[in-house]
Amino acid sequence: MSRTVFCQRLQKEADGLDFQLYPGDIGKRIYDNISKEAWGEWQKKQTMLINEHKLNMMDPNARSFLEEKMTAYLFDGIEPTIDGYVPPEK
């Protein structure tokens, strides 16, 4: 059975994640408030950020940089700046 959440990113009821995909309090907040759709969108942005900045995910600074971008994107609606990437017009 799928869960429904009110997605803070999309501002609508949508399918919630099946389980907590991110550790700690932020992970719980994502699980409770972010839809599968919004998480999928973030995953694409995250990949672009990792590639653009050549992030080493073993580096704590890289992880905190991404976490900051992730929470800004998911909860504050702030698009990450990715060189050469122009988000599609709505």
UniProtKB/TrEMBL annotation:
GO molecular function, one term: iron ion binding
Pfam families in the record: Iron_traffic
Top-level taxon in the UniProt lineage: Bacteria
InterPro entries in the cross-refs: Fe_traffick_prot_YggX, Fe_traffick_prot_YggX_sf
GO CC annotation, single: cytosol
Alphabetical GO biological process terms: cellular response to oxidative stress
Keywords: Iron
Record's function text: Could be a mediator in iron transactions between iron acquisition and iron-requiring processes, such as synthesis and/or repair of Fe-S clusters in biosynthetic enzymes. Necessary to maintain high levels of aconitase under oxidative stress.
Family: Belongs to the Fe(2+)-trafficking protein family.
HAMAP family from the UniProt entry: Fe_traffic_YggX (MF_00686)
Name of the protein described by the UniProt record: Probable Fe(2+)-trafficking protein
Lineage, highest ranks first: Bacteria, Pseudomonadati, Pseudomonadota, Gammaproteobacteria, Alteromonadales
